[in-house]
Amino acid sequence: MIEVENIHKSFGDAHILKGISTVFEQGKTNLVIGQSGSGKTVFLKCLLGLFEPEQGQICYNGKYYSELSTDQRRDLRQEMGMVFQGSALFDSMTVEGNVMFPLDMFTKQSKAEMQDRVDFVLERVNLIDAHKKFPSEISGGMQKRVAIARAIVMNPKYLFCDEPNSGLDPKTAILIDNLIQEITKEYSITTVINTHDMNSVMEIGEKIIFLKDGYKEWEGTNKEIFKTDNEAVTNFVYSSELFKKVRQMYIEERN
Amino acid sequence: MKYLEAIGKYFIMVYEVFKKPTKWPIMRSLILKEIDELIFGSLGIIIFISFFIGGVVTIQTALNLNSPLIPKSLIGFATRQSVILEFAPTFTSIIMAGKVGSYITSSIGTMKVTEQIDALEVMGINSVNYLVFPKIIAMLAYPFAVAIAMYVGILGGWIAGAFGGYAPSGEFIKGLQLDFDSFHVTYSFIKTFVFAFIIATIPSFHGLYMKGGALEVGKASTTSFVWTSVVIIILNYILTQLLLG
């Protein structure tokens, strides 16, 4: 579980996060949504410890990040997995090398044990045939899956994804969403996903927080987002005609 | 103020390099890879440039020593002194600042732009140690490259002198042996070690702390070359004053 208590973050004169508080529960897919520039990526980087908030606290299963030493912070980060927007795979390594990298770095497992674990996670993300390929030789969707495999190979307690569907076709996007949700349930991970993708919001948003201009404007579930009267949320979520019709149908059905 | 801040950040980075080291088996392979990339990969250009610089030094010295009272052996002497004291350590280092320095800045800068450095940090890895330490250790082999540059430079001078008709071979070799002070080689290697550290760290700093996208990677490479060269030239003056002055 991650508890966020009133965090503020600025860069120079730009006040990006303005007092965000929320709780991300274990075993749930928590989504952070909002327009570009609303502070989602900064918020996620604060959760990852890459940015330090000027005010407020972030608590990971009872451990306050601000109270940890540099080494303890690095140890905590070893419990985190991250899927970056651009996958951030190491260009000089093969798919297998990328996934094996955290194991090689932090465990004392034998080569055979590491290989078994890599095979297992690559199979889990349906990439068993791509072992020896380099990131530049595989598609964007495959790169995302390699990034997910690398993120889960160490059995993380926390999984963070920054727009995992960006640049992917709808079918692959759904595959990635389902994969993240299955992994979250299977390993009881606290998962936080930054997304713009409304399919993800509707399908896997067990908890959603909506950011607007650095404030938490709304929070709820994918069921509640249908019912909300919050104008900012409805303007954002139902910006397309299709979603407006879906919502209208839902309201008519409810009445 | 901006420069002071950058200098402060540079020294913090250097301190970070030696904190929380990466696992030795991984570090060892990184160091070997960097020696291959940074040192062996540069030998060709070092040899090529040193050979011709040695030749040019010989020709220019010979053309300026046209008095019959000055012995031809002085051409060999001047070539040896110029190559050992200045051309091999300093000139080669400027070349390396361009070749190796821009490679370091662009490779680290690209990793920064594509969030690979963030990925390392999120995994709990000291990215500065992981990326910069192997380069510093690999550059410890740089004096071997400079030793080759000295040898090839003098060889180039001898070939230009003997075969170009500027200095008879015997006279040139006599000049090479004239008043030889082994401390000059020590001085040259001391400079080389300092320059090696600069060539490994300043471009890394520019890569690690760059901001922006692909265009800025190119700009950072250029800036890193300029600053590496400036620092090498200033340190060259200070070290010469301290060691030979």
Structural key phrases:
heterodimer, A: 255 residues, alpha/beta, 2 domains, six-stranded mixed sheet, 10 helices, 10 strands, 24% strand, B: 245 residues, mainly alpha, 9 helices
Q: How does this structure look, described?
A:
Chain A is an alpha/beta fold and 255 residues long. Chain A has ten helices and ten strands. Chain A has helices spanning 40-48, 70-77, 95-106, 111-124, 140-152, 170-187, 198-204, 224-227, 231-237, 241-254, and strands at residues 2-11, 14-24, 29-34, 55-60, 63-64, 80-83, 158-162, 190-194, 207-212, 215-220. In chain A, the strands form two sheets. In chain A, strands 6-7-8-3-9-10 form a six-stranded mixed beta sheet, with helices on both faces. In chain A, strands 2-1-4-5 form a four-stranded antiparallel beta sheet, with helices on one face. By secondary structure, chain B is an all-alpha fold. Chain B has one domain. The two termini of chain B are 33 Å apart. The relative contact order of chain B is 0.18. Chain A binds chain B through residues 45, 48-50, 70-71, 74-78, 80, 82, 84-86, 88-91, 101-102, 104-106, 160, and chain B through 20, 22-23, 26, 110, 114-116, 118-119, 121-126.
The SSE order of chain B reads HHHHHHHHH
Number of helices of chain B: 9
Number of extended strands of chain B: 0
Specify the overall morphology of chain B: elongated
Percent helix of chain B, as a range, is: over 70%
Share in β-strands of chain B: under 5%
List the helices and strands and how they pair.
The complex is a heterodimer of chains A (255) and B (245).
Chain A: E1 2-11, E2 14-24, E3 29-34, H1 40-48, E4 55-60, E5 63-64, H2 70-77, E6 80-83, H3 95-106, H4 111-124, H5 140-152, E7 158-162, H6 170-187, E8 190-194, H7 198-204, E9 207-212, E10 215-220, H8 224-227, H9 231-237, H10 241-254
Parallel strand pairs in A: 3-8, 3-9, 6-7, 7-8
Antiparallel strand pairs in A: 1-2, 1-4, 4-5, 9-10
Helix pairs in contact in A: 3-4, 3-5, 4-5, 5-6, 6-7
Chain B: H1 2-17, H2 24-64, H3 73-113, H4 116-122, H5 127-139, H6 142-163, H7 169-177, H8 182-208, H9 214-244
Helix pairs in contact in B: 1-5, 2-3, 2-5, 2-6, 3-6, 3-7, 3-8, 3-9, 5-8, 6-8, 8-9
